[in-house]
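Q: What structure does this chain adopt?
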Amino acid sequence: MDAQKIQIIRQTEEKAAQLVSEAEEQAGAIIREANAQAESVKQDAKKTARDYESNLLSEYRQKGEKEASTITADLNSELSKLDSSASSGESKAVSYLLEQMKVSYGN
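A:
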């Protein structure tokens, strides 16, 4: 082989090595960019999930507080009725005892 052909082969090999190196650099850049985008998507998904969770907690907390308020009002109403009924029963019992004492002991 003559020197000119060997020189062309060497130049071609150098050019090929340079192209491979550039391709590796581009591939690395593409991978880094893909990783950055994946991390961004991951962070966005986490934020969306946290916001959704926060909204659900707030919604159900409000519903729970409303339900608790309704139950408390109902219980207070029932307690009032029981107090009234107990007072009425107490008055009747006292009246009955006084009447019995009158019968037993006179005026």
